[in-house]
Design brief:
The protein has 303 residues and is mainly α. It folds into three domains: 112 residues, no CATH class; 67 residues, no CATH class; 90 residues, no CATH class. Helices cover 56% and strands 4% of the residues. The chain has 14 helices and four strands. A four-stranded antiparallel beta sheet has the order 1-2-4-3. Helix 3 crosses helix 5, helix 3 packs parallel to helix 9 and helix 11 packs across helix 13. It starts with a helix and ends in a 19-residue tail after the last helix.
């Protein structure tokens, strides 16, 4: 068993095996490391553990499981989303420096199997659709698709694997009766959850079409939103006359918020003068949630 591998990728079966074979229990030390793990995720910090001593390696592996137990007990979407994004990025960073054997091991664990097809590196279409991020570059219309496979490069394979880790990390079922240590430290985490943030705008209920209301609700509840959703929301708010600073405040609610990237993307959308996509385009993005028949979200009138 490779404990260092399990430390870097605590979501793997190898990590679970390490916990079982070493009878790792949630001590105060492990619980504190678990809290630190989640707090780092909340702060958007990139923490790369590389413990050398066996006892520290086991504690590092245990902290992932303890963090998940705390999150399962709290079952708070904001904390779970933040945790999942951070764990995926942590794993992705390690994958970029990984050897070929360990990468193959991870790909098997995550259900992503790159292969060669007509001299190109590809993944099966269902795999690509399951784990591709919601970005324009990953839309099938912009991809080389043939024979049920999608061509990818090495960087994109890592990106698919990152998304698979995020999917794994956010699958946390409610836990009603955890150990007392989990309850105690989970209470500390709950204090860090921000209250639902009011959207900084003068809109009243019914002023926006259902698709935009849905996007704003996602922001208020601190859930993640895909690329198309964020872009459409920014373009809508720009066209409604909202200042960049206030739009950025809306975006600060997303679990993977990065102030520098957010400001750049908002400014880019404004400088390019993007027009609000029509309802047919919103539907193709998977963002349409009602049969409004207004043609374009900007034509919505309060009803």
């Amino acid at each position: 068993m490779d404990l260092l591998f399990a430390c870097k990728y605590p979501f793997t079966s190898e990590a679970r095996q390490a916990i079982e074979e070493n009878n790792i229990e949630i001590s105060d030390f492990i619980a504190e490391k678990a809290v630190t793990r989640v707090v780092s995720a909340l702060r958007g910090e990139s923490v790369h553990a590389n413990p050398m001593h066996i006892s520290d390696q086991l504690a590092e592996i245990g902290s992932y499981g303890a963090a998940r137990m705390m999150l399962a007990f709290l079952h708070n979407k904001y904390l779970i989303n933040k945790f999942a994004v951070a764990e995926a990025k942590r794993a992705s960073s390690a994958m970029g420096r990984e050897n070929a054997e360990n990468l193959r091991k991870l790909q098997k664990e995550l259900g992503i199997f790159p292969s060669s097809f007509e001299g190109k590196t590809v993944v099966p279409l269902p795999t690509f659709l399951t784990f591709s991020p919601r970005a324009i570059d990953y839309r099938l219309i912009n991809r080389n698709v043939k024979g049920g496979f999608v061509e990818v490069n090495s960087r994109e394979i890592i990106r698919l694997m990152e998304e698979a880790v995020k999917t794994k990390a956010e699958k946390i079922s409610p836990l009603k009766d955890p150990p007392e240590s989990v309850r105690k430290y989970a209470a500390e985490l709950m204090k860090l959850v921000p209250k639902q943030v009011p959207i900084p705008m003068s809109f009243r209920e019914g002023d926006n079409p259902p698709c935009i209301e849905k996007l704003l609700e996602v922001a208020k509840s601190h859930q993640n939103l895909g690329h198309q959703g964020r872009w459409a929301l920014a373009v809508y708010l720009i066209n409604k006359g909202m200042a960049d600073e206030k739009i950025n405040q809306v975006y600060s609610n997303f679990p993977d918020y990065d102030e520098r990237i957010s400001k750049y993307q908002i400014k880019h959308a404004r400088d390019r003068g993007y027009k609000m996509p029509a309802c047919t385009m919103m539907m193709s993005y998977g963002l349409c949630v009602a049969d409004c028949r207004v043609g374009n979200p900007l034509r919505w009138k309060k009803r």
